[in-house]
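Subject: Predicted fold for Las1-domain-containing protein, 450 residues

User T.R. writes:
Posting the sequence so we have a shared reference for the thread.
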Amino acid sequence: MDIRFVVTPWRAPAELLQLRRDLYCHGEDSIKRRQNAVNKVSAWRSRKQEIPLLLDSTADLVDVVLQDDQDKVPHGSLRLLYATAISRFITGLSDTQTTLIRDRPSWFPPGQTIHLPTHLLETRHRIVHRHLPTLAELKLAAKASLDWLWEWYWSQLDSAFSLNNPLTTSSSSQPDSTLTTMDLKSHLQTLLKPYLRTRKSEIKNKTKSSNAATTTLSALNALSASHSPAIVHTLLLQHLTTPPDHAILPTDKKLDSSMSGAFLIWTPLLLALCSSSPTFLPRLLAALTRAMNTPRPASVARPELDPVRQGMCEWVVHVLSSAAWRGVVRGSGSGGAVADEVLGRCFTAPSYWNVRLAGLVLEKEGAATGLGKAAREGWRDVLEVACVEEEDGEGMDVDFEGADGDVAGAVEEVRQSELVEGMVSGPQKRIGLWKPRPIGALPLGWEEDE
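User M.O. replies:
I've generated the structure tokens; pasting them so everyone works from the same file.
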């Protein structure tokens, strides 16, 4: 077999993996590390003109985000920078998509095809053929592009390098790539059981660093190498937030009971997952808010008395405002972008728990959530309107105790008549002793014209 050598700008796979960690890093030194990663890609461009399109596009998008964070570029110029980076990425990928489908990489997860989200294609069309989108829309498109690049390119590098290196490939060390969804769920539960045991022991011994989180993260990454990371993360979040498990909550969760134990157990693992994958934090918050808004049969009449939904609400507040999560949340967006996104989702469908979650988030100080003073005041105005609408939507309960029986009966009769009118509204068929007549027959008393 002929050996094919490929010249790459990076010296070894480890250098490219380190670049991946720097481009998508979170934390206090994230700006410096991301800037160094962009500079390294610029050096690679001078070393070799042909750089992988997805790598090049990632560096361009991260570079624009960094310039935006520095707040030194004028508004109009910033829109052009975002538009150029986004359109270059989407156009380049669309031109090579046919080749990628035909020459499918051997390490790519089976049963999946590379495709761009429709909203990104629409954004590119507007950039090229219509009016330039607003800066807020371009920022969202840039974030969605970086998330797509992580899921479809950067997260696949571990699997690609392990398959290309026979010394690191072992049938016993890699999970079976033909596992069904039920097998994956069972495998995830098997991975989480030792984590719970070890983590409880660490809490009891007051261990600062969590070896349990590191070990479990390595096992989850190995599982993601043979399956799509999106599938693994989705099944993991289902196990943590959906019935019958609700593993992220205490087993005996009662209304208004403490959640500190659950926070101590699961925070290290969730933080490790957020640091290793930039798409995990938005998926986590979406799963928590979805579980918070999912009614259970036992609490349909009084949703505010549901301890499970209360626990999910407290988890979202903890992620957005606690000191342990601050580095990850701030690294996922400038300022209070993550809190803004959650609040926007709450007020889009202002249910009881959405309004309560928004109120709890806005009660926190701006330093905790990253929201500026103007943003908090604007969201508080929206919260007041949502609270008024919720109160107006509720039926008024009238207490007839001690009132005159005739008055109470009259009011009840009016209610019943309104109910009947509402039930029979619309086209009605009159009931009576009507004799059937053929179509076109003249009514009685009418005579034909002579």
